[in-house]
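PROTEIN DESIGN WORKSHEET
SECTION A - STRUCTURE
LENGTH: 353
TOKENS:
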């Protein structure tokens, strides 16, 4: 029977379904609070000996790991971006398909993004904190009213979205319910798809200048890395809010800090260049009414684990049945690789009736 090793978060029900197709063993937990305690490439290579399939979490799967695991034929990644910890190019050369649960955060991240927007529009957390620490008394009633009087409405405001992929579209769908005007920058987005969402596709400069809330929803590529810098921040209107629950590398953090210190912009950040940010971080110097900080939480939810497990089970079973894999294969070039026949090809269609 096929042998599968799993180091990722995996729902028990779907793990039991996988176990009907292969011996399913779990080891470690790759989303540990301390990244330094995750298994090293050498430890992963040792664990993978004799395994055909790897359900991978966040461990580094390097070329050296792949070379040391001659039995490995298929990798299934729980991540939207497997390339962040897997040498996908090496997998392709070796004939190893990489299947992935793309879209596992397509509900949690947009929901979190809307929450960040609402919290920046309505200072409910500050009011709640006062009530929790001081109570609601006659003495602080006026203070609480003054806090709440600073609330603004999302209706009628302009939402700028950078990147109209799964998460960007998810934000747009939800923002439509708040009666926001929406403009997006994405040179690859189909115009008809944007129109159906009620989103106007514009150049980046126009999106920046119009947005009351600017949401980053792009992937990090050579084209997008550092795409929002001092010049771009300067184009944003005074008082606009920059929201990033995607990747810190999309923006120049130093330039954003200067804008926040000057009091010209506001921000809600879930991602940072260095995580954790540490007690001496300059971000703490920005008042809470201008900066909401969260600890890389946007993609987390109870449902996400179930969702990604269900997706990976579906991809795995379809692969073994030899079905056409138009989606869910991160390296489709692998089908034409000469090495595929002796690696992934040995599993593809092996359970075909």
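SECTION B - SEQUENCE
RESIDUE ASSIGNMENT:
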């Amino acid at each position: 029977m096929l042998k599968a090793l799993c180091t990722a978060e995996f729902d028990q029900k779907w793990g039991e379904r996988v176990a009907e197709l292969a011996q399913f063993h779990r080891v470690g937990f790759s989303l540990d609070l301390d990244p330094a305690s995750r298994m090293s490439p050498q430890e992963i290579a040792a664990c993978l000996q004799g395994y055909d399939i790897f359900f991978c979490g966040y461990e580094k799967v390097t070329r050296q790991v792949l070379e040391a695991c001659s039995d490995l034929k298929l990798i299934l990644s729980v991540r939207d971006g497997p390339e962040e910890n897997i040498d996908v190019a090496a997998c392709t050369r070796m004939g190893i398909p990489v299947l992935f649960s793309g879209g596992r955060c397509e509900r949690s991240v947009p929901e979190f993004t809307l929450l960040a927007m609402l919290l920046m529009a309505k200072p409910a957390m500050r009011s709640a904190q006062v009530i929790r620490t001081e109570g609601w008394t006659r003495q602080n009633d006026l203070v609480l009213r003054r806090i709440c009087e600073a609330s603004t409405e999302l209706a009628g405001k302009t939402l700028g979205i950078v990147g109209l992929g799964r998460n960007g579209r998810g934000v747009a769908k939800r923002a439509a319910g708040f009666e926001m005007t929406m403009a997006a920058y994405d040179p690859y987005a189909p115009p008809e798809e944007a129109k159906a969402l009620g989103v106007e596709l514009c150049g980046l400069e126009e999106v920046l200048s119009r947005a009351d809330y600017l949401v980053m929803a792009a992937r990090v590529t050579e084209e997008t890395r550092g795409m929002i810098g001092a010049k771009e921040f300067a184009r944003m209107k005074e008082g606009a809010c920059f929201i990033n629950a995607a990747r810190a590398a999309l923006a120049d953090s130093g330039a954003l800090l200067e804008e926040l210190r000057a009091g010209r912009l506001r921000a809600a950040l879930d991602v940072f260049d260095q995580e954790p940010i540490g007690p001496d971080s300059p971000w703490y110097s920005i008042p809470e009414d201008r900066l909401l900080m969260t600890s890389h939480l946007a993609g987390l939810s109870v449902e996400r684990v179930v969702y990604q497990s269900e997706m990976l089970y579906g991809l795995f079973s379809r692969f073994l049945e030899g079905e056409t894999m138009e989606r869910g294969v991160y390296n489709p070039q692998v089908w034409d690789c000469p090495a595929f026949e002796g690696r992934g090809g040995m599993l593809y269609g092996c359970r075909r009736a």
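SECTION C - NOTES
The chain has a mean pLDDT of 94.
The two ends are 17 Å apart (CA to CA).
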